[in-house]
Amino acid sequence: MTSIYENLTWLPQAPDNFSHRLIEASTGNELSDLAKFSLDENQLRHLSKKIQSLRNQQVDLRPLTRVKIGLLSNSTTKLIVPTLIGTALRFGIDLQVVEAEFNQISQVAFSTDSLFIDQDIAVILVAIDYRGIPILLSPGDRELSEKNIQDCFHYLLSIVESLHTKTGAQIILQNIATPTEGLSGSYERRLPGTISWLISRLNIELDALSVDNVFILDIAGLAANLGQENWHNPTLWNLAKLPFSQKYSPIYSDYICRILAARFGKSRRCLILDLDNTLWGGVIGDDGLGGILIGNGDPTAEAHLQLQRSILELRQRGVVLAVSSKNEDLTARQPFKDHPDMLLREEHIAVFQANWSDKASNIKFIADTLSLGLESMVFLDDNPAERMQVRRELPEVAVPELPNDPALYARTLIAAGYFELITFSEEDKMRAVFYQDNAKRAQKLIQSSDMEEYLKSLEMEITFVPFDSTGQSRIAQLISKSNQFNLTTKRYSELDIKYIEEDPSFYHRQVRLKDTFGDNGMISIIIGKKNEGVWEIDSWLMSCRVLGRRVELAVLQDIVKNALASGATKLIGFYRPTSRNIIVKDHYKKLGFDKVSSDTENETWELDITKYCFQEIPMVFNYRD
Question: How confident is the model at residue 432, as a pLDDT?
Fold first, then answer.
């Protein structure tokens, strides 16, 4: 297991001409492509130097997302910064790091002229290990030990709260990796007041922390996976105050960047599965139903069963499942229907593509059917040639390398961290079902010859609700994740949402949609600023799975109705182009707005609502105060 994490084996090996390609690289996309290999600390450092060189030359690095973070630690971090910057490119992030001086935690966190103030920092990483918290060893004294846990917890919490208050940044707070050998052997974790006992209980407090804008980085889990003896290096600490063995900088940086990616809407949402020798051992077309390996009693069959178990757990956490297989459709579906040991069934699969087309074409079809971008996809296939073809044709799709031993398939998929969570809501549980229902709608549209009749047959019911405490978490989550149908891609935290909700100068709506296939959940968020006579649409974002169903028009008519009631005569809308929201570049034009100004950063659109003509839309409207 250590080698999976240490070497990032889900990523392909760097090519022999990596150094030459790095020298020749001149765009953000080229750097991002180079970061998708399994790179060591030295290669990541070279990537970091290259992006800094391009910045100095004022090269436009779009479509990379520019993110600035702060870094605060009781350890030396200068060697970590380059690997962080290089790793961030793998996630499409142009990362800039504002690094605090060594062991200046209180000075930076509590000072009125903190280094991080007025720096436009989005996230601050608080990387404190067990040597940076006020641990007091008191073996056998439970009362004093429990008090010490609370002292350590509130110390970390005060740092987090002070940093957020001063900067408005969100915080990534590491939990604590336990030191290695215990003085009391196997009894160490049972004895109150030992360092192992204290840290394990402190981590429970940290992991249960329910504070807006704080994400916990599970370093305790990472160190356990790698082995605490391997993670902690007393020689490096004594020499240079390095917090862990530097060979783990790539995986450490990857863990951090996964959270950043999730924060900026770059986590994956869909897992596309090959079948033969991936979900089961053997080839269904040649070996038949009784000849494929899946189930208990055989090592290979059990390995594939474990992979299916892990995939099913991902679906329970909202990951959408699809199939892309070179097979006859009926033959490929047979194990899902008839094999007694299959855990995955047809009802778990949102889109089932079994044919003789190439995998890249099938993946494009799946993405279109689900209304998801290719950057949301992960493709799992045992065949190196198929993996290479998809990587070449669809570089946005994540394609993990799989080892020869299928017993390691599940571990490799999980270790890759494609589906990183920073929150988890009831709607997340239902996301796979939402997209599965959307695939059914797409199929019905294909079979329909009349769009009006199709829309009527959906029996849609749309509900408009102002922001409320119940929806705050989901609203903030949608705002952080939505990139395609998002007119301005502004990001707001839960605290920001709460402020908007309580400020009467804002118009705000969370929009939900039901139809004959099921509940789509929250599908749109609107934030508007009520100025005298003029309303400005600050943010308009929507789930792509409801495109083409006139939801945009329904939302606009709600905005217009409320704006007119307030005495406004004009709506102003803004479009800020990015590499991922091209689908909405004509959004305001289609809705009847006139473009009044435009530059490379922003377009401004205007609508005279005194002349607006309301239209009939085939859906039932509900309004809740």
Answer: 66
Give the C-alpha separation, 566 to 609, whole Å: 12
Residue 210 backbone zone (phi > 0: left; psi -120 to 50: alpha; other: beta): beta
Pairing of strands 506-515, 534-542: unpaired
Q: Identify the CA nearest to 37 among candidates 8, 66, 73.
A: 8
In this structure, what token pair is assigned to residue 625?
């105060």
Computed from CA positions of residues 234, 239, 241, 244, in that sequence, does the dihedral angle turn out positive or negative? negative
Q: Give CA–CA dist 135/137, Å, rounded.
A: 6
Give the DSSP H/E element, type plus range, for residue 308.
helix 299-316
116's tokens: 């991080």
* Rounded-to-10 torsion of CA 86, 87, 90, 95: -70
Share of the chain above pLDDT 70, in %: 96
| Burial 134-143, CB ≥16 within 10 A → b, else e | ebeebeeeee
Give the other-Cβ count within 10 Å of 171's Cβ: 21
Closest CA to 420 of 259, 229, 540: 259
Q: Where are the beta strands (DSSP E) in 454-581?
A: 460-465, 506-515, 518-531, 534-542, 570-575
CB within 8 Å of 546: residues ≥ 6 apart: 371, 438, 513, 520, 523, 524
**How far apart are alpha carbons 411 and 3 in whole angstroms?**
11
d(Cα 201, Cα 186) in Å, to the nearest integer? 17
Which pLDDT value is given to residue 349? 94
Strand-pairing partners, residue 216, are 173
Angle at the Cα of 418 from the Cα atoms of 414 and 423, rounded to 5 degrees: 100
SS3 category, 288: coil
Q: What is the token pair recorded at 317?
A: 């956490």
Q: In whole angstroms, what is the distance from residue 369 CA to residue 374 CA?
A: 12
| Measured torsion, CA atoms of residues 272, 378, 247, 203, in degrees rounded to the nearest 10 | -90
Cis-peptide into 234, omega within 30 deg: no
Rounded distance between C-alpha atoms, residue 336 and residue 618, angstroms: 37
- Cβ-based neighbours of 504, under 8 Å, separated by 6 or more: 530
Per-residue confidence (pLDDT) for residue 444, from 0 to 100: 63
Report how far residue 83's alpha carbon sits from residue 33's, in angstroms, rounded to the nearest whole number.
Answer: 16
Do the beta carbons of residue 572 and residue 535 sit within 8 Å? yes
What pLDDT, on a 0 to 100 scale, did the predictor assign at position 1?
44
Helix-strand-coil split of the chain, %, nearest 5: 45, 20, 35
pTM of the model: 0.80
Question: Rounded distance, CA 31 to CA 21, Å?
Answer: 9
- Collect all residues with Cβ–Cβ distance below 8 Å to 449 and sequence separation of at least 6: none
